[in-house]
Structure formats: structure tokens, C-alpha cells
Specification:
The chain is α/β, with parallel strands linked by helices. It contains 18 helices and ten strands. It has helices spanning about 10, 50-55, 55-65, 75-85, 90-95, 100-105, 140-150, 155-170, 175-185, 200-210, 230-235, 250-255, 265-275, 290-295, 295-305, 335-350, 355-375, 380-395, and strands at about 15, 20-25, 120-125, 130-135, 185-190, 215-220, 240-245, 260, 280-290, 315-320. The strands form two sheets. The chain has an eight-stranded mixed sheet with strand order 2-1-3-5-6-7-9-10. A two-stranded antiparallel sheet has the order 4-8. The chain is globular. It binds iron/sulfur cluster. Iron/sulfur cluster binds next to helix 4 and helix 5.
């Protein structure tokens, strides 16, 4: 069986939602959560071992379906990107797993079960966060909750309180986490801001105590506004640390979109981590491409080209679809077309450069996104919602969007 037609996640990764429920992957649309026969969502407190999850009937049937090229509905995001010729989370992940993926696929039995070769555990450590980004929600930021409440913005309060309480009540590692961490090769930490979650350092200490840290790579989606000496000491004992640092553009636009962020401080923290960990650390910049920063992206790319030699020249773009009123599709064609043209010229320049694999993946993703955006209808209603939302937030926060300056 050819692995390029499959997705590594159902074979090699387990992913945990901020409320402790298990899901097939962190991308995808609704229906990605793992359920028992009665339709009840399965939490990491309901299971004790990796085997119960990795060879759960739902996992087995998803593997068999994917092997027959029948992807579940929650994979539509990936399928849509691929149909447009872009780089989906699925296609981007395949080269990162390669041999392990191949071996795991070969081990699959006729009922869809596999050997217990869990590679990656992805943990969303709740919603504790010190920032209030415009495109975020109380599901991922405790601070945003008070803004939403004061401005009467709607959100599911019950779900948010479940998220808030889950990791507070599960600061000690439960049997499932202990079992999963005992053989893991990579842990992906998501948040909120994972470096602020109390359970985060407990997980690292557990891996160190188990004498596993030198075999484990740590991946983070982090705002990197805060790095303690304790975190640096723990990281120094691991095989590798990979930081996807969230930045939405140069200082002015980043600090506007990511309220509470401080570009200069993040710059200093990147230098601090690099000087402490040396070659053990890898960085990538993660940029959510959205209506608010779309016009600034050409300048952002120019900046990254010369910023730091150890930082990729292209960010890992996340293409915002939700909330739809912040998507780049709300920009009228007369506003988006000149930027698309500038970006296409830049892409042609990048294609002449020697790029790393990760940069090539980002470039393919950007090409697919621009093709999609160019053919997308103008979301006029979304534009009006965008104006209302940002005006309200600007007034509340007493700030103004930075203007684009073309040099
Ligand atoms: S195909 Fe995409 S959405 Fe589906 S499991 Fe893989 S990465 Fe997730």
C-alpha cells in the first residue's frame, strides 16, 4: 500500500482536546472526536492504555476506510486544500514520519488493528493564556473570556468552563498519559499557551524521571512571550525542542492582532533559547493568514528573508477559515488582487532560492491558498461583520489598526 494516499495521524498519533477528549487529529471539521458505541465522547480519564485507543473500533474502521480512499467527513479540510493543488496538513505530515509510517501501515491487520507503535502524543493543555488575540476565542484564552463577557460576544460558556476545569483537576498524570508517555517519541504541546499550563512541567519531569527525555522531541505552538529558567533547564535534557512561534507580522501588526504580545520581547526570548540550547532547538514562525494581516504579508516575508539565519525564510501559514468574518475572503477583489499579484511575484523569487523542505512546504501551501483566494467570491456580509467586530474591539481596547506602508 502506498503511504502517500494515506494520512499518518490515525496510524501514529493520538490527540487530546483542551477538555481532555480524544480526537483523531487537531485539524478537520466536526466529527473528529472519538466516541464509544453509545455516542459518548471518550476522555483520557475514561481509558487506561494506548492500546484501548489506538486499536479502538473507530480507529480501526478509519484506517480501513482511508486504505480504501474513503476519507471521513472531518478530513474535508485536507481534501479541499489538496483538490486546489495546495499542501494540506495530511500531505505536509507524510515526509515527517516516512519509515515509521511505512512500517506501521505494513503492520496493519485485516481488521484495521496495528502494532502499538505510538509515535506522537498531541496535548492541548487547556486555555490558560496571557494574550487576547483578535482571531482567538475563550476556548483558547482565559483572558479573552472577560473581553467577550464585557462586550456581550457570544460563546459556549459551559464548554469553556469544562476546558478550564479539566487540566486544573488533572494536574497529576493519569494512567493513560503515563502509559502513552512511556513509549512516545514526540510530544506536541498546544494551548492556550502551553508554557503557562502547570501540567506542562510535570509531563517533562515525568519523561526525565523515566529516563526517556534524551529520546523524545518536544514540539510547541507557543507565543514565547515568557520563558523561565526552569523551562530552559528542562528542555536542555531532551533530544530536540521545536518551537512554532506565533507571530502575525512585523512588530506593529503582530502586537495589534495579538493583544498583550510584544514582538521585541519575543525576539529576545528567541535569542535566549537559541543561545541556551544551541543546535538542540529548531524554530519555525507560525502566522495565521487572515484579513487583518493579508496586506502586510509582503513586508512580513521581506523581513523574514533576512531576520535570523536559523529561522526559516517562510512562515508556517495557518489559513484562517473561522471566524469567517476574519478570513481574507472578506476582502473585496480590488483590495486583495494587488496583494495577490505582489505575492505571486515573491513566490517566483523564492522558487529561485535554495529552500529547506519546511520552506518548500510553506511555499506550496501559499500557492494553493492564493489560487483558492483568487477564485473565491467576495464575502460581502463577512466584510460588514469584520468592520463591526473590529470597530467594537478597537473602541473597547482603545487602539487602531496599523496602516500598510509600501516602501
Ligand atoms: S487527512 Fe487531514 S483532517 Fe484527516 S486525519 Fe489527516 S490531517 Fe487530520
Amino acid at each position: 500500500m502506498k503511504i502517500d494516499k494515506l494520512c499518518p495521524y490515525p496510524w501514529l498519533q493520538l490527540s487530546v482536546e483542551p477538555n481532555g477528549n480524544l480526537r483523531f487529529c487537531c485539524y478537520g471539521e466536526s466529527g473528529k472526536d472519538l466516541q464509544d458505541q453509545n455516542g459518548k465522547l471518550i476522555s483520557i480519564n475514561d481509558v487506561n492504555t494506548v492500546e484501548e485507543v489506538l486499536n479502538h473500533p473507530s480507529y480501526k474502521s478509519i484506517r480501513l476506510a482511508m486504505s480504501n480512499q474513503q476519507y471521513p467527513d472531518f478530513c474535508n479540510t485536507c481534501l479541499r486544500i489538496e483538490k486546489n493543488g495546495g499542501e494540506s496538513p495530511r500531505t505536509a505530515q507524510i515526509p515527517l514520519y516516512q519509515n515509521e509510517f511505512l512500517e506501521q501501515v505494513k503492520s496493519m491487520q485485516t481488521d484495521g488493528s496495528v502494532e502499538l507503535r505510538l509515535h506522537t502524543l498531541e496535548l492541548t493543555l487547556g486555555n490558560i493564556c496571557n494574550l487576547k488575540c483578535r482571531m482567538c476565542s475563550p476556548f483558547f484564552s482565559t483572558l479573552l473570556k472577560s473581553d467577550f463577557d464585557q462586550m456581550n460576544f457570544d460563546y459556549n460558556k459551559e464548554e469553556v468552563s469544562q476546558i478550564e476545569s479539566f487540566w486544573q483537576m488533572n494536574e497529576e498524570l493519569n494512567p493513560f498519559l503515563r502509559d502513552a508517555l512511556s513509549n512516545i517519541k514526540r510530544v506536541n504541546f498546544l494551548g492556550g499557551e502551553p508554557l503557562l499550563a502547570p501540567v506542562h512541567s510535570k509531563i517533562l519531569k515525568f519523561l526525565i524521571d523515566q529516563k526517556r527525555s534524551s529520546e523524545v522531541t518536544l514540539f510547541y505552538n507557543t507565543n514565547l512571550t515568557i520563558v523561565s529558567q526552569n523551562t530552559l533547564d528542562l528542555w536542555s535534557q531532551f533530544k530536540k525542542v521545536h518551537l512554532d512561534v506565533s507571530l502575525e507580522g512585523k512588530a506593529e501588526i503582530n502586537d495589534y492582532i495579538r493583544k498583550g504580545s510584544d514582538f521585541k520581547k519575543i525576539d529576545r526570548n528567541i535569542e535566549l533559547v537559541k543561545s541556551t540550547l544551541g543546535n538542540k532547538v529548531e524554530f519555525n514562525i507560525c502566522t495565521v493568514l487572515q484579513a487583518l494581516n493579508f496586506e502586510h504579508i509582503p513586508q512580513w516575508l521581506d523581513f523574514l528573508l533576512t531576520w535570523k539565519s536559523y529561522i526559516p525564510k517562510l512562515p508556517n501559514f495557518i489559513y484562517l477559515d473561522f471566524p469567517s468574518y476574519l478570513s481574507a475572503k472578506i476582502l473585496a477583489p480590488k483590495h486583495r488582487e494587488p496583494i495577490i499579484k505582489i505575492l505571486r511575484n515573491k513566490i517566483a523569487e523564492y522558487q529561485l532560492l535554495k529552500l529547506s523542505d519546511i520552506e518548500k512546504i510553506s511555499l506550496r501551501g501559499l500557492i494553493g491558498f492564493l489560487d483558492d483566494l483568487e477564485s473565491a467570491k467576495w464575502d460581502e456580509k463577512g466584510y460588514l461583520d469584520f468592520v463591526v467586530f473590529n470597530k467594537k474591539l478597537d473602541k473597547f481596547r482603545q487602539e487602531q489598526a496599523p496602516k500598510v506602508k509600501y516602501s
